[in-house]
Amino acid sequence: MNRKLIWFIVIAFVFLMIVLFITNLYIDLLWFSELQYESVFWTQYLTQWGLRAAAFLFLFAVLFINLMITRRLVLRFPNLQLRERMMASGFMQRITPRRVTFFFLTVSLVLSYLFSGYAGGYWMELLRFVNAVPFNIADPIFGTDVSFYVFQLPFFRFIYGFLMMTLVLSLILVGVIYFIFSPPIRDNKFVFAPFTGLSHITALLASILALKAFDYRLQQLELVLSDRGVVYGAGYTDINANLPVLQVLMILAAAIAVLFLVNAFLRQPRLILYGLLVMISVSLLGGWAYPAAIQSFRVEPNEFVFEREYLAHNIEFTRSAYALDRMATRPYSAGETLTWEDLEQNPGTINNVRLWDYRPLMNTLNQLQAIRLYYRFNDIDIDRYRVEGDYRQVMLAAREMDKTRLAPQAQTWVNMHLQYTHGYGLTMSPVNEVSAEGLPRYFVRDIPAVTTGELELDQPAIYFGELTRDYVIANTKTPEFHYATAGDDNEFIHYYGEGGIQLDSFLKRLLFAIRLGEYRILISDELTSDSKLMFDRDIQTRTAKLAPFLLFDNDPYIVMNDGRLFWIQDAYTVSHSYPYSTPYGEYNYIRNSVKVVVDAFHGSVDFYLVEPDDPVAATFAGVFPDLFTPFEEMPQGLQQHLRYPIDIFYVQARMLMVYHATDPNVVYSREDLWQLPVEIYAGDGALLYHPAPAKAPLC
Predict the structure, then answer these.
(1) pTM of the prediction?
(2) Largest CA distance in the chain
(3) Which class for 94: exposed (0-12), middle (13-18), buried (19 or more C-beta within 10 A)?
């Protein structure tokens, strides 16, 4: 292939990547700015790319310096056999100081780019490390505050891994160069004699061993996260076998590192070999064989006696991590007879006993209240509202737009993105009432919305919801479909809300056309300078993009307040490194510290900090001071509709199956395991509560 063509393709590819990068960067900035979270964007972006740039520069400097140390050897080319072949081929004439330096520079740049890219993904670990808030709880083994394990240990692990990768990569590169240009020779005892580069390689090995000593210290602290044996956290074997061995290995690694540094001047290859053999032997015998023997022959025959103390730690810290220790216990005597007087004295409870099941109710709503095929009720939420003077438990369902149900001929770009832009209203029905026909009784129904009593719904449009997974452009020359009226007439509106990014320049239209892969955004005459493009509209994507470090509940729920519609999304702070706490999935600490409110019309997102005493949430608040709002500033009408979220309820229920007990003997023997209730529906048995997500953004 022509060299000019190759360069053209390379330059064009690089230019395209730069354009896409700038496009995505600018559009994401517009998106965050539209939600008034520009500072959140810059904190995430600058930390991520700053950490990646620092990792790149550090790796490049280490690789380039180590390679340049070998340059004199490369120019001398002492490998005579290879030198003769290179001279015969004419290659030796090309080995000049400038070309060698340029080659080393290129190799260092390429490898640094390839191997440092992952570092940016640890931006949150860095921010948590810097802004850590103490738990004021010390682990029972080392007396270290829990915040060290939650916030600092993960970042130390990243630092160790990155430094070890840097040193090993440097050792491989210079080792290959020394082996090619000045291969070691053996003496008559079959041991490598001193060779060129021995001091350099010895110094790198000394650095690796010194770093390994740091790793052994981290491993000691990580024993409180051990999953060996019956106890999660440090058990008898961990403390009495693993810990002493790790301490010996740490001292031994540091001592051999010093020996290797001395050997950089002594230049004795045997010392390198002996040192590595000692490390490997002690690591295998002490790190594996000795603890395994203690566990098998000493602990397991009388396990509870040896593990009782550590099992007590596990119970205490697990209950603390899942907030089980905050729950109050209350005895209920069984077998009491329910009398008519009991019913008369508790009308608030009796009148709100739920009889409707959400599954047949959803089918009924989609048949009777969807009104048009392109509307769909995706979920049923349960809440409480004051209706006609009574505090009633009700079931709500948002009527969202499902454009996949449009006729194929109607699924044009104009219809999909300019005209059918939003859903309409909701239904609300009491949990225990039916009509004479056996159908739900409605407090809110129909299109346009018909309400009961003091309930009001002045703004029923749903531009942001659970099914709004595509982009739309509102306030264009094309009127937006609002709802269907009787006959062939339909009601249309033009969006007047605050959501969306205004397409007030040719540059924005061009960048969105590139980002969304849609040329019509650039050429359509239906768009004006007042048009607003909305994307990332669904609740889960919208909230996770703003706060990727939180775990979000699977079930956001719709709320009607002051005549408007809002979505409330529960968010959790989680960690996988809480000492002695038994994990659920990938995390072993969880708090429902944040309530997120999304305006269904304007698209605004507010993060309310409902548990400021949670150290993880307090740390995030320190990192992003403009993201979180004090709970006291949440409108009173929304506060009345907060609920205990289902996902954390399920997690705590699962943990309570074992950890309702505080007696180590009961937990060890599993003699009092609780069970989750099983619901029989349509002939099939299933857990009454669906599993919460086990995967999470961890700290």
Answers:
(1) 0.90
(2) 110
(3) exposed
